[in-house]
Amino acid sequence: MSITKERKSELIQEFKTTDKDNGGSAASQVAVLTERIRNLTQHMKNNHKDLHSRHGLTQMVNRRKKLLAYIKKNDVSEYEALIKKLGLRK
Questions:
Q1: Using an 8 Å Cβ cutoff, are 86 and 34 in contact?
Q2: Band of pLDDT at residue 90, cut at 50, 70 and 90
Q3: Fewer beta carbons within 10 angstroms: which end of the chain, N or C?
């Protein structure tokens, strides 16, 4: 359900915006949230009555939505590259 430390580090290294970025940038936060959302979505397919996990999933989706809105407001080209790389919009 959750991601491992190694996977989280890989995502941060892949999506970091500067050399000193340790996961605090909005892009790396969105990448980590996307991975967690995908894992939790698989859990919800098998456990559709798990309301506590559904609530957590909704919170993560809303947080990612806010972070994406922030990125889009500041740099549209970065936003478009990020959603294409993560495969969010179709």
A1: yes
A2: low
A3: C
Query: Is the Cβ–Cβ distance between 36 and 2 less than 8 Å?
Result: yes
At residue 78, does pLDDT exceed 80?
yes
Contacts by 71-74 with C-beta closer than 8 Å and gap 24+? 71/26, 71/27, 71/30
**Domain locations along the chain:** 5-86
**pTM for the whole thing?**
0.91
The DSSP 8-state label assigned to residue 17 in this structure reads S
Cβ(73)–Cβ(26) under 8 Å? no
Reply yes or no on domain 5-86 having CATH 1.10.287.10. Answer: yes
- The mean pLDDT value for 47-65 works out to 96
Sign of the alpha-carbon dihedral angle for 10, 12, 14, 19: negative
Tokens of 30: 């969105």
Tell me the CA distances in angstroms from 44 to 1, 23, 58, 65, one per residue in order.
Answer: 10, 27, 12, 20
